From TrEMBL:
Organism of provenance: Actinacidiphila acididurans
Classification lineage: Bacteria, Bacillati, Actinomycetota, Actinomycetes, Kitasatosporales
Residues that bind Mg(2+): D13, G40
Catalysis performed (reactions): IMP + L-aspartate + GTP = N(6)-(1,2-dicarboxyethyl)-AMP + GDP + phosphate + 2 H(+)
Active site, per annotation: D13 (proton acceptor), H41 (proton donor), K139
Family statement: Belongs to the adenylosuccinate synthetase family.
EC number(s) per entry: 6.3.4.4
CDD domains reported in the protein's UniProt record: AdSS
GO molecular function annotation: adenylosuccinate synthase activity
HAMAP family: Adenylosucc_synth (MF_00011)
Assembly: Homodimer.
Protein residues bound to IMP: D13, E14, G15, K16, N38, A39, G40, H41, T128, R142, Q223, T238, R302
Cofactor comment text: Binds 1 Mg(2+) ion per subunit.
Protein name, UniProt field: Adenylosuccinate synthetase
Amino acid sequence: MPALVLLGAQWGDEGKGKATDLLGGSVDYVVRYQGGNNAGHTVVVGDQKYALHLLPSGILTPDCVPVIGNGVVVDPAVLLSELSGLNDRGIDTSKLLISGNAHLITPYHQTIDKVTERFLGKRRIGTTGRGIGPAYADKINRVGIRVQDLFDESILQQKVDAALHDKNQILVKIFNRRAISTAQVVEEYLGYAEQIKDYVADTALVLNNALDEGKVVLMEGGQGTLLDVDHGTYPFVTSSNPTSGGACTGSGVGPTKITRVIGILKAYTTRVGSGPFPTELFDDDGARLRTVGREYGVTTGRDRRCGWFDAVIARYATRVNGLTDFFLTKLDVLTGWERIPVCVAYEIDGRRVDELPYSQTDFHHAKPVYEYLPGWSEDISKAKTFADLPQQAQDYVKALEEMSGAPISAIGVGPGRTETIEINSFV
Ligand code: GDP
Ligand code: IMO
Ligand code: MG
């Protein structure tokens, strides 16, 4: 029966793709439940590297059914190009299922995303420019286009027309851009209908039936807890709910079916785009984390902002997601530092604060309070068991576990599927 949730515990890019791929071998379904092609999930299998944006990372596991849930926003052009890219590399993608209730990203969403960011100037969010926010805004505003609308030309026409009515006014009168033609959008999107129709299904029904039959379902989050529109560093967030509650609404699986919630946690911290980041480094240590950890965006190629581990954030992730486990990634990147700072609390206007402040202004002013843990110099990338790690690395992991509030059940010591120390099994 079990449904498992796997999600980012920080600001995204924690290594969710690798972790999902690793678990893919022991689960029957992998479901994306929110976000869209703003995600960039890297999976390394042997000497092959895959960058997935929209497709669930389970697509690389032959017996696993990949599912795009109702909570995802789908750019059909990206979907088709990602599928054909994988097919060209010999990956069978025929099992994919896409919810008919998932919303579509259209060219006008991308245009609005980009012009809005430009208009915001210094106050910009630093979005991926993929149209994510505007597509979710339309969903909530009840003028979104769903996957199922592709199969009824007259409905599609009416809905695109309704959606463009206001948007064209805004594009032309506020942003000084050309109006977008309904006919052009409809023609382009009808062209996608035939190509994706065989994948479309009532995915919530499929998943619940599978759970009733005793199958294992893994729900894979995009982005991360601090990018959640409700629980993250609003407004510097994405427009969906990567936190565990989003797994239910975004897949149609009820909370009583979920047995494990696994937070993917990097052994340090990164962030892409604007917004507060208390442990951010602007010195040689930050540059070294970026170089050694290869912290460059998979989707936009931007340098990731880098900083030390923040235990306040990890504790917060445990709380808002009800985490049962952590999967600690990229421990190998910390090899070679004599001592490693770990943020255990913040100082805000002279006061020590142990929990994430709910006031945005306070969070912007938060200064990290560091504890310094001894580092190690041995190569740990070949470690297979916890005992293989040098004592200082073991102590670092134990200290993080203690501070973060949930057991660390796996540790990543390299990007490859097998470069993982499994401590407690997930399935
Ligand atoms: P995601 O968005 O959470 O799936 O993460 P990304 O794929 O954007 O970024 C994580 C990066 O770290 C990828 O390049 C992974 O191949 C890599 N990675 C994942 N786990 C580990 C690890 O334990 N050690 C190292 N060195 N790299 C890792
Ligand atoms: P994965 O799944 C890191 C960030 C963007 C921006 C903010 C809003 O690979 O962890 P959006 O385009 O979603 O409206 O941008 O969210 N962002 C991510 N940062 N990893 C991601 O995905 C991200 N997806 C969005 O940089 O700050
Ligand atoms: Mg990523």
